[in-house]
């Protein structure tokens, strides 16, 4: 069932919604399958860094067909579009994306507000929702590898700035810096639950955690209980896929379809595990 960001987030306000970036139809089908199996809403995303690589304009009609065939509300999300990617945002909206993330977190505060507000006005005219970001998340979105930048080097989101940011932009969800990072952790992250609670207390939009791969189950549950309502998960899906590829090196046949079937089952198991975890 096609839905926008708000509709998905409002479909289960007591839990965090799983947002899974995908690279192909098999990954997307795995998300929709588990959403229907569990009776939970979900978000299928494409990272801006992958938009052209995976030929998103050609892929989108099939993604929307998968979403429309699902029983549960699912949004199609453009993840981490930058201030210099307004043309991509417009193209995604024209293609039928129902959710946009504009990431102006590297800009000065006032400029982040300005670009985010511009995207909100554009996306809302298409009936799509918008996620903004305040307080950058370490690492590179869409790269399932370790990086030199530590999450501890990124300051936590400040509640007073979050309140002003939400008020001036009209966003539908806010990604905040709470100690997580994109990619694979070299050491366990230290999540600031106090930051989540403080921002939640002064804002009225769902809060988003990026960089969930590698965060302990207990910390995920505590984050949800503190107020996180959308969790982005991607690196774990890539790890899962590459584990299957590496394992297939021991196979002595060329049954590609059987390999793909095993891969899909592995993705479904991982996605189900995450979606159940996000219930808090």
Draw up the topology in text.
Layout: H1 5-10, E1 17-21, H2 25-38, E2 42-47, H3 56-69, E3 74-81, H4 86-95, E4 99-102, H5 109-125, E5 129-134, H6 159-169, E6 173-176, H7 193-202, E7 207-209, H8 217-226, E8 228-233, H9 235-248, H10 256-277
Parallel strand pairs: 1-2, 1-8, 2-3, 3-4, 4-5, 5-6, 6-7, 7-8
Helix pairs in contact: 2-3, 2-10, 5-6, 6-7, 9-10
CATH topology type: TIM Barrel
Order of helices and strands: HEHEHEHEHEHEHEHEHH
Provide a count of the helices. Answer: 10
**What is the topology, as strand order, of the major beta sheet?**
1-2-3-4-5-6-7-8
Q: How many DSSP-defined strands?
A: 8
Low-confidence stretches: 146-151
CATH homologous group name: Aldolase class I
Rounded to the nearest angstrom, the radius of gyration is: 18 Å
How many structurally independent domains?
A: 1
Shape type: globular
Percentage of residues assigned to helices: 40-55%
Mean pLDDT: 91
| CATH C-level class | Alpha Beta
**What is the terminal-to-terminal distance?**
24 Å
Percent strand equals 15-25%
Sheet having the most strands? 8 strands, parallel, barrel
Structural class determined from secondary elements: alpha/beta
CATH architecture label name: Alpha-Beta Barrel
Nutshell version of this structure?
It contains ten helices and eight strands.
Fold and architecture overview:
Helix content is 46%, strand content 15%. An eight-stranded parallel barrel has the order 1-2-3-4-5-6-7-8, surrounded by nine helices. It has one domain (5-274): Alpha-Beta Barrel (TIM Barrel), CATH 3.20.20.70. Helix 5 packs parallel to helix 6, helix 6 crosses helix 7 (193-202) and helix 9 packs antiparallel against helix 10. The chain is built from ten helices and eight strands.
């Amino acid at each position: 069932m096609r839905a926008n960001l708000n509709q998905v987030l409002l479909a289960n306000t007591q839990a965090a919604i799983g947002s899974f970036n995908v690279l192909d139809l098999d990954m997307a089908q795995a998300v929709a399958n588990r959403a229907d199996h569990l009776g939970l809403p979900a978000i299928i995303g494409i990272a801006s860094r992958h938009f052209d690589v995976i030929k998103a304009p050609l892929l989108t009609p099939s993604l929307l067909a998968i979403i429309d065939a699902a029983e549960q509300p699912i949004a199609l999300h453009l993840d981490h579009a930058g201030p210099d990617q307004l043309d991509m945002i417009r193209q995604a909206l024209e293609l039928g994306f129902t959710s946009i993330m504009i990431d102006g977190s590297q800009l000065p505060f006032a400029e982040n507000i300005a670009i985010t507000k511009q995207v909100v006005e554009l996306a809302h005219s298409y009936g799509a929702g918008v996620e903004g970001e305040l307080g950058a998340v370490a690492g590179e979105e869409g790269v399932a590898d370790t990086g030199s930048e530590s999450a501890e080097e990124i300051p936590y989101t400040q509640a007073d700035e979050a309140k002003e940011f939400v008020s001036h932009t009209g966003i539908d969800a806010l990604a905040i810096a709470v100690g997580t990072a994109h990619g694979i952790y070299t050491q366990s992250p230290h999540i600031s639950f106090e930051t989540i609670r403080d921002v939640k207390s002064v804002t009225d939009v769902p809060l988003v955690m990026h960089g969930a791969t590698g965060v302990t189950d207990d910390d995920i549950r505590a984050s949800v209980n503190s107020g996180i309502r959308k969790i982005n998960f991607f690196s774990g899906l890539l790890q899962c896929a590459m584990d299957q590829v590496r394992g297939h090196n021991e196979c002595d046949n060329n049954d590609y379809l059987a390999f793909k079937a095993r891969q899909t089952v592995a993705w479904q198991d991982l996605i189900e595990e995450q979606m159940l975890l996000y219930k808090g």
